[in-house]
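Q: For a teaching session next week I want to show students how multiple molecules come together into a single three-dimensional assembly. I've collected the sequence lines for a complex. Could you give me the predicted C-alpha cells for the whole thing so I can convert them for display?
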Amino acid sequence: MQSIGEAARETGVTAKMIRHYDSIGLVKPSVRSDAGYRYYADADLHALRFVKRARNFGFSLEQTATLLALWRDRHRASAAVKSMALAQVAALDAKILELQAMRQTLVHLAQNCRGNQRPECPILEDLSA
Amino acid sequence: MQSIGEAARETGVTAKMIRHYDSIGLVKPSVRSDAGYRYYADADLHALRFVKRARNFGFSLEQTATLLALWRDRHRASAAVKSMALAQVAALDAKILELQAMRQTLVHLAQNCRGNQRPECPILEDLSA
DNA sequence: CGCATCCTTCCCATTATTGGAAGGATGCGG
DNA sequence: CCGCATCCTTCCAATAATGGGAAGGATGCG
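A: Of course. Below is the structure for the complete assembly, covering every listed component.
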C-alpha cells in the first residue's frame, strides 16, 4: 500500500492528478485511512500507469475510463477495444490533416513576406482580405 | 454601423463570441448606445474577420491580438509578422509530429488485435505494460 | 399598444491540468 | 516527548475558447 506521494513517484502521475482521478471516479484508492489518507494497492498503481499511457495516445479521459473498464473486464471482446483504437486513429488523422493545411498556408504566406523593416506583408494582407 | 446580430451575420463570428472579444478587449465596438447596445463600424467588422482567419490558422487569441495590433500599425516592420508566422509553423510542426507518432503506434497495435469475441488484445496489453 | 425579437449582463459548463491556501497528520532528530 | 519539516486533506480558482441559458430591458412593426 503506497501513499499518494509514493504512488506519484512510482507512476509519474502527480499527486494532484491522482487526487483528481479519485474525485472523478477514474482511479480510486483501495484504502482510505481514518485520517482520510489515500493508500494505493499495486493494482491501483497499475491503473494509474494505464491511464497515463492512454492519455499519451491522445485518448480523452472519458475514452480512457472506457478502456480502463474494458481492461478490468477479463471477458470483454477485443472488438470493442479495436474499434475504439481505430476511431482514435481516425480522429488523429483528421486533426493531422487540419494542422497540415494550416501549416502549408502559413508557409506559403511567409515565403512571400520579405521580413524586413518595410511594412509590406502578405501574411497580414491575407488575414485581412 | 451594424448591431451585434448584423455583425455576427456578416462576419460569421457568433454574437456570443463578439461580446467575448469585446470583454477581453480584443475587438471593441466603435459605439455603444445609451441602452448599452454595441454598434460595429466597417473597420470593426474587418477586425472581426481578421480574428476569425487568424484563429483558423491556429493562432491563439493572444497571438491574434498581437497580429491585430501589427495589422493596425501601418508602420510596423514585416519582420515581426514573419517571425510570428514562422513560430506558428514550428509549433504546428511539433504538434503534427506528436500526433503522427501517436497514430503510428495505435495503428500498429490495432493491426495486431484480432478484434473478435475473444479477449486477447495487444492494445490493452500495451497500455497496461 | 402589444408582441416578437433583439439586446444586455451574469453565471455556469466544458476539458485536463495546475496552482495555492488553510489546516490536520505523520515522522524524525534532539 | 516536543517541535519542525513534510506530507496529507479539502476547497477555490485559474488556464483557453467557446457554448448554453436565465432574467430583464430595448426596439421595431403592425
